Known about the structure:
Layout: E1 6-9, H1 14-30, E2 35-38, H2 41-48, H3 57-74, H4 89-100, H5 104-116, H6 125-134, H7 139-146, H8 149-165, E3 172-175, E4 178-181, H9 186-193
Parallel strand pairs: 1-2
Antiparallel strand pairs: 1-3, 3-4
Amino acid sequence: MIKPFEFYFDFISPYSFLAHKEIRKIENKEGVKIKYNPILLGGLHNLHGIKAPAFIPAKARHMIRDCKLIAERNGVRFKFNSYFPIRSLNLMRGVLVAEEDNIKSYYIDVIFNTIWQDGLNMNDEIVIQKVLKNINVNPKTFTLRSTSSLIKDSLRKKTSDAYEKGIFGAPTFVVNNKIFWGQDRIEFVLKESSK
């Protein structure tokens, strides 16, 4: 039996999507609920003064192929989003609104899938509104709430707290006060969470 661990993520990260798919399998198999911690990856990188791998040409050239290899190995349907990079700020704030409405898990599944399986342009406000309507959420109210100072401050604090813990990228896992970075570290996370 494993104990729940923390998962730091941003929808902008295809590796977070791939980790998310593995986490859902773990939750179903082990009967545990993993703690999803939304962060703003761009903000985290700025705090650390680092550049995202997707914006380093030598790394970016390999990222799409790498993600496809991982998805294929794990049996996950994956389509690299042609609108990348996705501006995830309001989508990540939406996680906090969805949490208030007790639809956090569902919202996360839908948003990840629309970006990394369906390839929708989640930079387009009209597309976002359609997606929200499809999950029975009032888009105008939801968007208004996601831009409230309370939600903005909450996401900023979660990102700042992640920085203070030493987290520098997504996906990151924390278990027993140990940090594991990258979707390919899940086996070590599970081993640590079994202790």
